[in-house]
What we know:
The chain is mostly beta strands. Helices cover 0% and strands 39% of the residues.
Amino acid sequence: MIKPLADRVLIEPKEAEKKTEGGIIIPDTAKEKPQEGKVVEVGPGKKDEPMELKKGDTVLYGKYAGTEINSPDGKKTYMIMHQSDILAIIGK
């Protein structure tokens, strides 16, 4: 289990699109890094900056935000970033 500290958030990125709307298959080398994901874990926040996100929120984040990490078992890839790197919460 990965537990973020302070104002950090653990996000499971949305899978990159494999096809375009027109049905064209996109090769792995041309796929864009997803900028959307689901919050898996949140830290407690900081004294002067309370945590606004919660588990289960779907969020948008910057293209170059955060650090990519693997789960301890190596089966999943997550992004860990500061709450301030989150641009928006989707569907609230």
